[in-house]
Write the structure tokens for this entry.
Amino acid sequence: MDIRKQIGNAQRIVVKVGTSTLLHPNGKINLYRIEHLARELADLASQGREVILVTSGAIGVGMLRMGLSQRPDSPQEKQALAAVGQVQLMHLYDKFFTEYGQVVGQVLLTKENFANHDQYINGRNTILTMLKNNVLPVINENDAVTIAEVKIGDNDTLSATVAAMVDADVLIILSDIDGVYDANPQTHPEAKLLHEIPEITQAVEQLAGGAGSNVGTGGMATKIEAAKIAVASGVTMFIASGSENGILRAILQGEEIGTVFPPRPAHLRARKGWLAFGRRISGVLFVDEGCVKALKAGSSLLAAGITATEGNYPAGSTVRVLTHDYQEIARGTINYAAETIEKIKGRKTSDFAGLIQGEIHDEVIHRDNMVLMI
């Protein structure tokens, strides 16, 4: 069955809307677009579906409220604008959703909420309880208090992480671009829209290019990263234009709109999802072809297959496992610090006693603490 036809049965839907959809090019609030978004989402909820909105725009709305025409450079000023803008943004959402009989509630998240397992579970339970009580969660990163070191990064990533956390059926990212093209449509008028991307290869990542708008922060590259998270978690993801009326209904009716990323066959288990997408990535391991085959077959990661490492991380960190052409194979919790990996990479476990001191683990990453990303 075609993936676009299957999506009509989706019950739990995450919709992400970008700043460029919420604001006009002149920085003023696009009330028409917000009203139509609220109407569509409220109508989906009226159908008995569970709907979550991940929204950008707090800083942009804060700039408008404070009469600023340029985005400040100071992190503190951006945080202050986010605090002002978040109040105004939620006021608008509450106003429009109330007109359509839908109760909304605000959820502000940070990277720490995903990195800490207890907070991750609590966040999941809170959102699911809101849905159970017919409350539509409106989610944003808590920019007023988040510093760069613990920032999720962008709301494309946030939306995919939320979708994975709550076992969503579909994630729809609405943007100022209507999907992924086989070339940059701004410089290549003949570029064609890719209606389906069954696998995120290195070639697909190269198509992403740079940021698509000088208003928002999430370019196509971040949307491809979001797609990696979504499909690995069993979530179907769409990229579509946020400027078209009825876009959500059209997608859920199976129309050939935007770009769809089909999910992997099975959802990640809750703990596996947390390992892959909840924790901060601290480093990288490069492995040889033999190691890749062993990992695909279900083996743990052994030092013999490691050829190089990047980053300065302690034992217990989460690292990415890559091939030498930068294809991501897995993520997991590593048993050794980076300096130890430098000593044991390419070596057999039987050699460890003469190379390192302290506790010795047979596996660099045990398979129970690892998630395959292929």
Confidence is low (pLDDT under 50) at residues 210-218.
